[in-house]
Amino acid sequence: MRRIKSIINVTVLCICVLFSGLAMPVVIHAEEPADVAPYMTYISTYSTDVSISSSGVASIYGLVRAKDNVTTYVKVTLQIYKDGAWRDVKSWEDSGNMGSTVAADYQLFSRGSYRTYMVCSANTETKSATSATRVY
Q1: Whole-number Å distance between alpha carbons of 130 and 88
Q2: What are the angstrom distances between the C-alpha of 48 and each of 2, 11, 15?
Q3: CA distance 25 to 21
């Protein structure tokens, strides 16, 4: 009888240990996906684009807007794809408080694939963007 009680006690103890291990929370640490944009402290929005008319006039656009009254800066560069690489054609810059905008027209002299590359900043935060490629 004593032996049966001991076996029952050991069995109950093993069951308790087993269930207490299952009740422990499991913590999984996963890396953040690469396509998730990090939180921006000062910049509220930024973008760039280029369109090309049938007569070869490229309309360049770039902007940055700040969340607070901080100094902003934007530089937009028109690029052409030539000899297997993107080459700078011409750049425009602007700076100001709360936001900066570049809007310019440029007459293209050669046919090819064009895009804009933009670098912008607000306070200590810097971002870059590239427009879609346009063909002339």
Answers
A1: 13
A2: 84, 70, 64
A3: 9
What pLDDT is recorded for position 15? 63
If one counts every other C-beta atom within 10 angstroms of the C-beta of residue 129, the result is 16
88: Cβ–Cβ under 8 A, 6 or more apart, which residues? 77, 78, 79
pLDDT value at residue 68: 84
E strand map for 1-136 = 43-52, 57-66, 71-82, 85-97, 99-107, 113-122, 125-130, 134-135
Q: 2 by DSSP, 3-state: which?
A: helix
Structure tokens that stand for 31 in this block: 């890396």
Neighbours of 77 (CB within 10 A): 21
| pTM, to two decimals | 0.71
Q: Which amino acid does the sequence have at 111?
A: R
Tell me the sheet residues that pair with 3: none
Q: Which of 97, 99, 108, 9 is nearest to 45 (CA)?
A: 99
Half-sphere exposure of 40 (CA within 13 A, CB side): 20
